[in-house]
């Protein structure tokens, strides 16, 4: 056997590595160019869930011949993994500093060279590298901080500011108020988000639609819209 017989095409190696990392946590829907998280993903930390999503993006070239980006901006990641921007930004910085992901402009992606280390971290081999700080007295079970307060620099407690309505809640209202009483395209759903004050990239809309389909809240079918055969979404007919 010659040494050249031991070589593996980079694309084949990368595809297997991507599959090994994401198989338990996501599924692809080429029809809407969406990535769906499975229930098992709920057990992941925010850091690991972010890594799984970014790795899953690398799988698109193996799923479809269509041109789908394998990078994501912080806003796209926030919508996909449902992590608030204030929590996500430090995670992305930490992953970048750890050389697990790279940034090009405002978009983040993983490199094939880092997939082995990413898998080790997600499966728990990297846990020893991270240390949990001891809870302060103010964060103990009896502290009002645990019930929604914030301790200021002077030691006084003030109320935690309320968060705005999430995109998931906005979408749920669309379903409840009858927005899908007639067939709607992905673009129409995006525009409705914008009307409700929620700025959302087109590429992240499918995750809400697919969840509604799985929950039997919506049906979908392909129809001709302006000369194009596209998916449309509608409230199930009784």
What is the gist of this entry?
The chain is of the alpha+beta class. It has nine helices and eight strands.
Report the β-strand fraction as a percent range. 15-25%
List the uncertain runs.
125-133, 137-162
Mean pLDDT rating: 80
**How do the helices and strands follow one another from N- to C-terminus?**
HEEHHHHEEHEEHHHEE
Count up the helices.
Answer: 9
Taken together, the total number of domains comes to 2
Terminal Cα span: 65 Å
Over the alpha carbons, how many angstroms does the gyration radius reach?
A: 21 Å
**Name of the CATH superfamily of the largest domain:** Winged helix-like DNA-binding domain superfamily/Winged helix DNA-binding domain
Structural class: alpha+beta
What is the CATH class of the largest domain? Mainly Alpha
CATH architecture label name of the largest domain: Orthogonal Bundle
**Biggest sheet details:** 2 strands, antiparallel
| Strand order in the sheet with the most strands | 1-2
- Could you tell me the number of beta strands? 8
Question: What proportion of the residues is helical, as a percent range?
Answer: 25-40%
Topology-level CATH name of the largest domain: Arc Repressor Mutant, subunit A
Overall spatial form: globular
């Amino acid at each position: 056997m010659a040494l050249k017989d031991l070589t593996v095409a980079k694309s084949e190696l990368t595809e297997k590595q991507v599959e090994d990392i994401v198989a338990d946590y996501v599924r692809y829907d080429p029809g809407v160019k969406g990535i769906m998280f499975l229930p098992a993903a709920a057990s992941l930390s925010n850091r690991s869930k972010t890594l799984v999503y970014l790795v899953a993006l690398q799988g698109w070239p193996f799923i479809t011949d269509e041109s789908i980006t394998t990078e994501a901006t912080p806003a796209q990641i926030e919508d996909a993994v449902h992590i608030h921007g204030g929590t996500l930004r430090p995670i992305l910085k930490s992953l970048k500093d750890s050389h697990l992901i790279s940034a090009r402009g405002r978009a983040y992606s993983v490199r094939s060279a880092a997939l082995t280390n990413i898998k080790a971290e997600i499966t728990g081999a990297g846990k020893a590298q991270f240390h949990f700080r001891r809870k302060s007295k103010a964060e103990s079970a009896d502290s009002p901080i645990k019930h929604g307060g914030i301790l200021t620099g002077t030691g006084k407690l003030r109320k935690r500011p309320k968060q705005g309505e999430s995109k998931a809640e906005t979408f749920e209202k669309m379903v409840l108020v009858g927005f899908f009483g007639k067939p709607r395209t992905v673009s129409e759903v995006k525009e409705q988000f914008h009307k409700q004050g929620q700025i959302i990239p087109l590429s992240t809309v499918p995750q809400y639609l697919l969840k509604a389909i799985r929950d039997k809240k919506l049906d979908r079918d392909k129809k001709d819209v302006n000369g194009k055969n596209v998916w449309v979404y509608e409230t199930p007919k009784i």
